[in-house]
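FORM 12-B: Structure-to-Sequence Request
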């Protein structure tokens, strides 16, 4: 018998699909607001469109039309007097405030990303990176030639890391380590959070010179500079700082194809002592996706990697194969949820279902419904240590942990 709920559901119409088709319009409205700094201009209270036009040097009537666009997407509200004030969501576009994602907006709708997505069809047809097809350069070569955008990228990664750090700290005990090396650690936002939460821990940040440019000042401001070393270099060709108890890769592996990812993992393996661990923080794509917000974020991120960087988001089996090719074996996937999800845990259905299995030296904590994951490596008899993976995205994070393989 046909399902009654299905019989009562109205047939789909263009009205339900069109908002998705026109989603790029809202993206540009938000981008222009971020570029003009409108949220900052409204930080001290409501203003008229004419006042904002003078402050931003824009065409008054055209800006008013943009302000209406920001109202309909929920970032501004218009008062009875015709002034505009920022909503709590709109305030996230302010610069240098807790929770800001202004640089993420500037990065993801920048011309480089915008035009690459406009050439997504090329990537789907050929498997080639759209950005390279459009601009004739790889992503990080493009950043190197555009230092202003590179600075936005670094700040955007800092903003994203502020989301992930509390979830990572909530599910993994870093006090077991004496030293942590954050490979591709940028200005030290993640490592700084680890050090602040673990007074006995010392750390090293390793990244390109442009990546670590603000690390020392960031750590000094946090009172952590005496417990952290900053080293610049290229994780593909330079020797990584050796002897760390744990090595962290956050949002690094997904930027690269399997060959380049393997090179990074092998470089980490060479630097790690026999007792070392490798922690990777990235999304872990489920075997079957649905329309949930977490899956949507992961899948769209994967397409962004296809079009822009040439990398990819990976499933747990894909991580296992990649890690094995670099001498590692995945041991477990550890669910990690942000503070809001933990606060609501009693009122909601669990986002991640896990099961533990123990076999010799291999411990596996596997997500049945994937979320960001953490992976940790353990030394293998007669071989370098193996890594683990931490993955984070969407409303909840999961961690994958890799343990040492048994001797063969």
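FORM 12-B RESPONSE
SEQUENCE OUT:
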């Amino acid at each position: 018998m046909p399902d009654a709920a299905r019989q009562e559901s109205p047939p789909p119409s263009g009205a339900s699909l069109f908002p998705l088709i026109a989603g790029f319009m809202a993206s540009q409205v938000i981008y222009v607001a971020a570029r003009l700094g409108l949220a900052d201009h409204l930080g001290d209270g409501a203003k008229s469109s004419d006042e904002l036009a003078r402050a931003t040097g824009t065409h008054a009537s055209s800006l008013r039309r943009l302000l209406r666009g920001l109202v309909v997407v929920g970032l501004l509200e218009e008062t009875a007097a015709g002034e505009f004030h920022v909503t709590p969501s709109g305030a996230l576009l302010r610069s240098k405030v807790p929770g800001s994602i202004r640089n993420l907006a500037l990065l993801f709708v920048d011309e480089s990303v915008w035009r690459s997505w406009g050439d997504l069809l090329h990537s789907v047809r050929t498997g080639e990176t759209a950005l390279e097809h459009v601009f004739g350069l790889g992503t990080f070569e493009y950043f190197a030639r555009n230092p202003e955008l590179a600075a936005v990228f670094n700040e955007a990664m800092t903003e994203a890391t502020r989301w992930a750090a509390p979830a990572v700290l909530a599910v993994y005990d870093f006090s077991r380590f004496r030293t942590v090396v954050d490979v591709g650690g940028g200005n030290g936002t993640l490592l700084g959070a680890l050090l602040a939460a673990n007074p006995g821990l010392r750390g090293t940040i390793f990244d390109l010179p442009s990546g670590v440019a603000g690390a020392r000042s960031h750590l000094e401001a946090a009172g952590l500079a005496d417990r952290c070393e900053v080293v610049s270099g290229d994780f593909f060709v330079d020797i990584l700082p050796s002897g760390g108890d744990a090595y962290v890769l956050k949002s690094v592996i997904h930027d690269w194809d399997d060959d380049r990812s393997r090179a990074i993992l092998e470089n980490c393996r060479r630097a790690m002592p026999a007792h070392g661990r490798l922690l990777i923080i990235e999304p872990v794509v489920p075997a079957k996706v649905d329309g949930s917000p977490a899956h949507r974020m992961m899948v769209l991120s994967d397409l962004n990697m296809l079009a822009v960087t040439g990398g990819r988001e990976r499933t747990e089996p894909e991580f296992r194969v990649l890690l094995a090719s670099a001498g590692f074996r995945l041991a477990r996937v550890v669910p990690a949820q942000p503070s809001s999800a933990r606060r609501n845990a009693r009122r909601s259905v669990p986002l991640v279902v896990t099961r533990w299995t123990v076999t010799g030296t291999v411990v596996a904590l596997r997500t049945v419904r994937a979320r960001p994951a953490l992976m940790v490596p353990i030394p293998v008899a007669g071989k370098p240590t193996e890594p683990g993976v931490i993955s984070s995205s969407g409303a909840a994070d999961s961690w994958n942990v890799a343990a040492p393989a048994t001797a063969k």
